[in-house]
Q: What sequence folds into this?
C-alpha cells in the first residue's frame, strides 16, 4: 500500500491505528479524480496492471479575485475623494490656530494698555511724569536744569580746550605740495 503525500509536498500523514498517537487527517476532499482525456480512451487503470490513475493539478485560485479588485478600487476612490476635504480641514485648523495666537497677542496688548491707563489715573504718577517730561515744579520750588557743555566745562576748569584732531595724511601731503609751489624762485 502506498502512502499519499500532502499537496504541500510534506511527508505521509499518520493514520489513526497505525501506531503512534492519533492525529486528524490533513487531506481534504477535492472531489473525483481527474483523468486526462487520453487516458480515458485507453481504458481503466485495472487494464494496465493495476496502476493508480494519475492526478492532474487543480487550477490554483487567482491571487486577486474580482471582488478584491473592486474593493481595492472602492478604497482608492474613497481615499481620493477624502483628500481634498482633509486638506481644507487642515488649512482651516491652521488658520484657527493663527487667529487664536493673534487674539492672545491682542489680549496681552489690551492688558498692557489697561495697566498703563490705570497708572495715568493716579495723581502721583501724573506729577512724576510732568516733572520728568515737562520740567514742571510745585509752587515754591526752584527748578534746576543741568546742560552739558564741554567747552564751558573746560573753560571753567581752566583747562585748555581739546587739541584739534590731526589732519588726514592726504591733507598734510597736499599742504606740503602747495607750500613748495609757493616758494619764490631764485
A:
Amino acid at each position: 500500500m502506498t502512502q499519499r503525500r500532502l499537496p504541500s509536498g510534506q511527508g505521509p500523514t499518520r493514520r489513526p491505528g497505525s501506531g503512534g498517537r492519533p492525529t486528524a487527517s490533513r487531506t481534504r476532499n477535492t472531489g473525483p479524480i481527474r483523468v486526462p482525456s487520453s487516458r480515458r480512451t485507453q481504458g481503466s487503470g485495472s487494464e494496465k496492471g493495476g496502476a493508480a490513475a494519475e492526478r492532474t493539478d487543480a487550477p490554483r485560485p487567482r491571487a486577486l479575485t474580482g471582488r478584491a479588485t473592486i474593493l481595492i478600487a472602492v478604497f482608492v476612490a474613497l481615499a481620493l475623494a477624502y483628500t481634498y476635504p482633509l486638506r481644507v480641514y487642515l488649512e482651516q485648523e491652521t488658520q484657527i490656530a493663527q487667529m487664536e495666537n493673534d487674539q492672545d497677542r491682542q489680549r496681552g496688548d489690551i492688558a498692557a494698555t489697561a495697566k498703563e491707563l490705570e497708572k495715568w489715573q493716579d495723581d502721583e504718577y501724573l506729577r512724576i511724569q510732568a516733572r520728568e517730561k515737562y520740567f514742571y515744579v510745585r509752587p515754591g520750588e526752584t527748578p534746576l536744569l543741568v546742560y552739558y557743555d564741554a567747552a564751558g566745562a573746560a573753560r571753567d576748569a581752566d583747562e585748555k580746550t581739546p587739541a584739534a584732531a590731526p589732519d588726514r595724511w592726504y591733507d598734510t601731503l597736499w599742504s606740503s605740495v602747495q607750500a613748495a609751489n609757493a616758494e619764490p624762485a631764485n
